[in-house]
What we know:
The complex is a heterodimer. By secondary structure, chain A is α/β, with parallel strands linked by helices. Chain A is built from 11 helices and 8 strands. Chain A has an 8-stranded mixed β-sheet, with helices on both faces. By secondary structure, chain B is α/β, with parallel strands linked by helices. Chain B folds into 4 domains: 5-197, 3-Layer(aba) Sandwich (Pyruvate-ferredoxin Oxidoreductase, domain 3); 201-383, Rossmann fold (3-Layer(aba) Sandwich); 397-467, no CATH class; 473-580, Rossmann fold (3-Layer(aba) Sandwich), CATH 3.40.50.920. Chain B contains 18 helices and 23 strands. In chain B, the strands form 5 sheets. In chain B, strands 9-8-10-11-13-12-21 form a 7-stranded mixed β-sheet, with helices on both faces. Chain B has a 6-stranded mixed β-sheet with strand order 2-3-1-4-5-6. Chain B is globular and about 90 Å long. Chain B starts with a strand and ends with a helix. At the A-B interface, strand 1, strand 2, helix 3, helix 5 and helix 11 of A face strand 7, helix 7, strand 8, helix 9 and helix 10 of B. Strand 2 (64-67) of chain A pairs parallel with strand 17 (431-433) of chain B. Chain A: InterPro entries: 2-oxoacid:Fd_oxidoreductase, OFOB, PFO_beta_C, THDP-binding, TPP_enzyme_TPP-bd.
Amino acid sequence: xxxxxxxxxxxxxxxxxxxxxxxxxxxxxxxxxxxxxxxxxxxxxxxxxxxxxxxxxxxxxxxxxxxxxxxxxxxxxxxxxxxxxxxxxxxxxxxxxxxxxxxxxxxxxxxxxxxxxxxxxxxxxxxxxxxxxxxxxxxxxxxxxxxxxxxxxxxxxxxxxxxxxxxxxxxxxxxxxxxxxxxxxxxxxxxxxxxxxxxxxxxxxxxxxxxxxxxxxxxxxxxxxxxxxxxxxxxxxxxxxxxxxxxxxxxxxxxxxxxxxxxxxxxxxxxxxxxxxxxxxxxxxxx
Amino acid sequence: xxxxxxxxxxxxxxxxxxxxxxxxxxxxxxxxxxxxxxxxxxxxxxxxxxxxxxxxxxxxxxxxxxxxxxxxxxxxxxxxxxxxxxxxxxxxxxxxxxxxxxxxxxxxxxxxxxxxxxxxxxxxxxxxxxxxxxxxxxxxxxxxxxxxxxxxxxxxxxxxxxxxxxxxxxxxxxxxxxxxxxxxxxxxxxxxxxxxxxxxxxxxxxxxxxxxxxxxxxxxxxxxxxxxxxxxxxxxxxxxxxxxxxxxxxxxxxxxxxxxxxxxxxxxxxxxxxxxxxxxxxxxxxxxxxxxxxxxxxxxxxxxxxxxxxxxxxxxxxxxxxxxxxxxxxxxxxxxxxxxxxxxxxxxxxxxxxxxxxxxxxxxxxxxxxxxxxxxxxxxxxxxxxxxxxxxxxxxxxxxxxxxxxxxxxxxxxxxxxxxxxxxxxxxxxxxxxxxxxxxxxxxxxxxxxxxxxxxxxxxxxxxxxxxxxxxxxxxxxxxxxxxxxxxxxxxxxxxxxxxxxxxxxxxxxxxxxxxxxxxxxxxxxxxxxxxxxxxxxxxxxxxxxxxxxxxxxxxxxxxxxxxxxxxxxxxxxxxxxxxx
Lengths: 287, 581
Ligand SMILES: Cc1ncc(C[n+]2csc(CCOP(=O)(O)OP(=O)(O)O)c2C)c(N)n1
Ligand code: SF4
Ligand SMILES: [Mg+2]
């Protein structure tokens, strides 16, 4: 059946209310194409969405989905995947959702290495609350709550991930449709936590980190001799603040997912209609 | 000698008090005696006073009392802490060779047994066994056949090799013989044995076992006293049934991981205590609006804030009933004994799935750490029924799809109960959200749909009120016009207090309420009684408040909030005084 799945099957009949030109459109399209291309269908896919403009993606896609509490999308995805490892789990949310209120979960989700994909729709701004600084906003980026800029360096999400023991780190750009889709596909196929920071410009509130800016500044690693299996090379790229990179920056080839480590294999929704047959043994343990 | 016997071992945290006490409790249980244990402990790992108390009888015991017959005191402070409970004829076992115990004074009328615990232990193979020497001494004092202690030692140390077991048995005998040889005193105690088989477990273990029995396959948690035991119990056991336990980075995560597992169709739970329930409250509303079946266990301890982490309190009732912003339909059950911890957990999972709501299990520290004996039939696994509610599959899903073939997870069913389709079900793909939504689960701000969805979620509570049995547990004289009402772990204590009250000619009716929301309507009972006393371990009387609200009548209150659970004899006095006031 999966070969018949088209990417539009992942589209719900709800019309997106994102501003025309919002980067989230391209980010979502690439995700849907990557899901279809990797043989998934809406009935075996679970999307967990954060809270923010980006989080609306759960409504615009067609799949099993949960749109939960601000910052907690990764924990929800973790629970879904562990309770039924047969599902394809994709978590998506904003830079505020993931790197501010959810930063603690991000670090631990990375080191846990549950086999799911995490797409951060990074617009370097709080879109939904109408334009406040986010953790990835530039130091001098003026907003309603930071009139002179945050005056603190932006977080480097990839460095955070690398330090936490990430097995897959990539960056993509919503408007480079083909590359974005390819990169998400690789994250899906990765056996472990596939982290993709996707630049998804906010055309309404961010006039600095624009399409033009990313188009001009992004260096595609594909066009370089970068070896994504080389940790040190990845570290250098990630810590190089003079450039923005696109592509798979780091991938641990022999990544072992949390589920494999812990022998989590069952679809836990299937249980008998009474206590397990040998349950009296549990009682006898207390003799 | 009274029918019950009270024993304790006390010392510093880190002295192995807990494991020694548990061994003795196990020995008594294996000898066919009933046991009820309690702990007095400080939250530091080392330093500070800690004690493990055992009340035992051939009949059922379900409370602590203010009396101590034999005390093993490893520190002088242990004697001081228990002065009020010791009485004439009480035996105090201590090691006079221990520097701190050299000048210890045995209070008037009590019998001090100076036993060189450490030296005897060293002779038997290691100083670490000195507490076991003391247990041997206790066997001699109480005429308790030492073979029962052997059996408990085998259980405790068997996995570590026969040599260790033998050394411990020898250490126990050294203590026993020392007392027999050095003291020709006649002690008043005789611990008879019976042929009965009992199991010995605490409330946290009962909750964990109930979860597995009920088909729970997923647990996410973050360690916190006194709930950690639930997680530790499940770890290593739930996997045998295809399940998994995960330690989250915090409680914000734990409850959301558990929620994710529930969305995937697993019976899923988390357990925590006060500080953790505060963090989890962030997600209470999402569970309810997304109609996710989730069991959340709060093993209450003394608050607020970090409070007294190892002390008893029933202070989170308001949190369980009202916690979280907005209005959140939810169920709250509160087990009333260790065995009920098992059964209420089973029930909680059924309620959660049948009504697709968060179900809170309110347990408390007193029950969580109390080891109590039961006949194994008290946990009859054949009686466990699993009801999963309205779950659709590939064949039945079309009944709940709209004309476009879209699944309606929040369908406006007449009884409020919409269908669930587990991920993987064909044609079931759907969204669910903490935003107000329509039948398809999509965000809406349509005023009519908002009202319909709120009413639908509340309708589930009404449906449950009609379909389920929410009766309280009743004890004492049903015709008495003196009504005592309680919840949680106080039930057994009050039942025992009724014995003391009877001796004083006071006759009461006790209603012990395990369902706090929905809860039984007790307005008739409350209004028909001459006096109503609500007993709970908190300062303000949180349950008394809701009962007054339900019945529109003032009630009297007995509250305790010093961190220690009620004791039967003390409580009998309190109830009597309050009734008379
Ligand atoms: C607990 C909580 N605090 C604050 C908010 C308000 N809020 C909603 S979205 C958001 C930030 C959105 O930024 P981001 O995650 O970058 O998403 P974007 O809108 O840019 O896609 C905030 C602060 C909330 N919903 N919940
Ligand atoms: S405000 Fe920005 S992020 Fe939000 S929809 Fe509009 S363009 Fe996109
Ligand atoms: Mg953003």
